[in-house]
Structure formats: structure tokens, C-alpha cells
Design a protein that fits this description.
The protein contains 15 helices and 16 strands. It is α/β, with parallel strands linked by helices.
Length: 365
């Protein structure tokens, strides 16, 4: 509570210095990443049973072993280099390294880009006997395979609402009872983004509220600049644009996680909650193509893992815990359908193993 209070005081100072209102994406950046105060910068025990959420690599090594099958195939035409963004506790890296070694693949290098000092320390402790290096930023040039598991969904988003035919931007103000949301006319960049959404998905009804991931789009554009030859596997919660901005999804996808409970209020205890928003995979695919990358596949996590041999891997490691974990990874009601896998690349060819029977790339057009 004291840590959250310090972060709130810092945010309030920023609001006052900005004329009494800041856009939500700026608030989200501070709530998650403000040095020494934000959720990913300061809160301990974020991932796992003692934390606020669990990811697929933390749930079971089967996820990494199936992913390794796709990486092994890609390495047939690419340098044996891995680059992981947002590596969590290091569980995915540890199991990928082990599984690739089991199947006889020797890595040239494994690098990580991690913005959380706390998680970086966990990764370094877990992987101290592995030949892993840490980078402060993406490399200027890279050839190999890139992994970003649940990274795009924690990039700051802009919030908007439709009122009386106008597009308004939602931001954060400070009132007598604490932080609250307030709206003002949207700027040019957000207006253009919402106009593009409505051109694809149809007019949004009055009162409709959602979000736009401009930071995720910018990250994808930079990926196109420094990925010289390789494959990028992006795993995240999300939908194609027409599903994302469906009229029935009138309150958007913004969600917070605190001690394995989900709630929709990002202004409650800033710094102690993870804040996420689903990914508009259509926009990511469009930006990728504009940056010179190819869309090589798009599938549900379940279909991707099945195509990568998860059931065979389960048969090699039977047991109640592995079976239960496999069900969570594959279930439509849990991770299987909610999470998607998008493959982007340059200078590498398909078809990729993970998308042979479940590719939905046509839905991103």
C-alpha cells in the first residue's frame, strides 16, 4: 500500500504538471514501468502461485517443448540464435535450451531483452549455468528466431470512447476521491486510428469504449527495421480487428490482475496490479507488412501447440499434473483459444509446422 501510494503521488505530480489531465497510455506506462515504482519495476512476486498471474511457460514445460519443435524447424534455414523479449522468470528459456539440446540442436546464442530489473535478476539466477546474455534494447541487426510471449498485451494503450458521433480520448485526472478517468477530444493520431477501425469493422455505436495499441504497432515497425533474416513468434491474447471491435465488446478488453483475480479497474492500487489489453492482430499484421515482413502464420495457441506435437510430448511425460496442464494450454475456455500465435518473418520460407492445419491468416485481412 505504501509503495502504491508513492507511485500515485508521482502520477499526481505528473498530472498537475500536464494541466490536470494525462492520456491513459501515459498513466499505464508509469503504473507498469516507472523506475523504482511501477509494477514491473518494483513489485516482487509477479508471476506464479505467489504472484498475480501465470503464463503458459510457468504452467508446464510442455509449452516450451512444443515451441522448440517450431524453432528446430526454423533453424533448418536460419542461424541458431534466439532472442526473447519479456522472458518472465526465465522458465521458457530454461526449458527451450534443454529441449533443443535433447533433440540435438546446438545454439549459437540466446539473448534476452528485459525491462524489469526484478525479473532480470530472477532470470539470471535461474539461467546462471546457461550461455545467456541480456540486452538493454533490441540489437541493430538480428538473424535467427525471436520469441515474445505475452509481451504486446502489456504495452501501453490509448483509450477512446464514442460520444454523439465524436471520438474522445480517455485519460486520468486527480479528484477529491483519488484518480479517475476523464474524456477530452481525441488528437489526430487517435482519430485516424479509430477511423481505420471503423472502416474495417463498421461504425461503432454511441457509448462504445475500447483501446488502441499504438505502442505495440510501433514496436512491430521497429522489428521490421532490425530483423534482417528470421522468424518472430508473437504469442498473446487478442483477436482479428473485426472480432476485437465487435459492437458487443462495448467496454474494450482492458483487464487487471491482482493475486490471480481479474478486475477491470486500472486505477485501483496502481503499481500492485498488472494491466493488460488484448492485441489487435490485424493492425500488427498490417504494420509488419508495411515494414517489409511477411505474415507466415496466425493460429490459436491450441492449434499451434497441437501442430507442434504437444500430444506426443505429453505421451512421453505422462502424469496427472502434465495432463491437467495440457488441458489448460489447449482448452477453448482457458488458454487454448484466448491466446493466439502470430508468425512474422523475413528471408525464411514456410510452411511452418505450427500452422499447417490451423492457419487463420486470412482473418487478418
Amino acid at each position: 500500500m505504501a509503495a502504491s501510494g508513492r507511485l500515485v503521488a508521482h502520477i499526481v505530480e505528473h498530472i498537475e504538471a500536464s494541466g490536470g489531465w494525462i492520456p491513459f497510455d501515459r498513466f499505464m506506462q508509469q503504473a507498469l514501468y516507472e523506475p523504482g515504482l511501477g509494477y514491473y519495476a518494483a513489485k516482487p512476486d509477479k508471476i506464479g502461485a505467489r504472484g498475480d498471474f501465470v503464463t503458459a511457460p510457468e504452467l508446464s514445460p510442455l509449452f516450451a517443448r512444443a515451441l522448440a519443435a517450431q524453432i528446430e524447424q526454423a533453424f533448418g534455414a536460419l542461424p541458431h540464435r534466439l532472442l526473447e523479449f519479456g522472458a518472465g522468470s526465465g522458465a521458457l528459456a530454461a526449458e527451450l535450451i534443454a529441449q533443443l539440446k535433447r533433440v540435438g540442436v546446438e545454439l549459437e546464442s540466446y539473448a534476452m531483452v528485459e525491462v524489469s530489473a526484478d525479473l532480470k535478476a530472477q532470470q539470471q539466477a535461474r539461467l546462471r549455468d546457461s550461455n545467456v546474455c541480456w540486452l538493454d534494447a533490441p540489437p541493430d541487426r538480428f538473424e535467427g528466431v525471436i520469441i515474445a510471449n505475452e509481451v504486446l498485451d502489456v504495452m501501453p494503450v490509448k483509450l477512446f470512447a464514442k460520444r454523439g458521433g465524436r471520438t474522445l480520448e480517455r485519460g486520468v485526472v486527480q479528484g477529491g476521491s483519488g484518480l479517475s478517468l476523464a474524456e477530452r477530444p481525441a488528437g489526430v493520431e487517435l482519430l485516424e486510428a479509430v477511423e481505420a477501425i471503423e472502416a474495417d469493422a463498421g461504425p461503432l455505436p454511441d457509448g462504445y469504449a475500447s483501446e488502441v495499441g499504438l505502442v505495440a504497432r510501433a514496436w512491430t515497425a521497429t522489428l521490421g527495421q532490425w530483423l534482417q533474416r528470421g522468424l518472430a513468434l508473437l504469442v498473446d491474447y487478442g483477436f482479428p480487428r473485426r472480432e476485437y471491435y465487435h459492437p458487443q465488446r462495448a467496454m474494450g478488453t482492458l483487464m487487471c490482475h491482482f493475486r490471480h483475480r481479474a478486475h477491470p479497474d486500472p486505477l485501483w492500487l496502481p503499481g500492485l496490479n498488472d494491466i493488460t489489453a488484448h492485441v489487435d492482430f490485424t493492425s500488427i499484421a498490417q504494420v509488419a507488412r508495411s515494414a517489409g515482413l511477411e505474415v507466415l502464420g496466425y493460429a490459436s495457441q491450441a492449434r499451434f501447440l497441437l501442430d507442434c506435437g504437444l500430444l506426443d510430448l505429453l505421451s512421453q511425460a505422462p502424469g496427472a499434473s502434465n495432463t491437467a496442464a495440457a488441458l489448460r494450454l489447449l482448452s477453448e475456455a482457458e488458454m487454448g483459444e484466448l491466446l493466439k500465435v502470430l508468425a512474422l518473418g523475413r528471408g525464411t520460407s514456410g510452411p511452418l509446422r505450427g500452422f499447417v492445419r490451423g492457419d487463420r491468416s486470412h482473418r487478418l485481412i
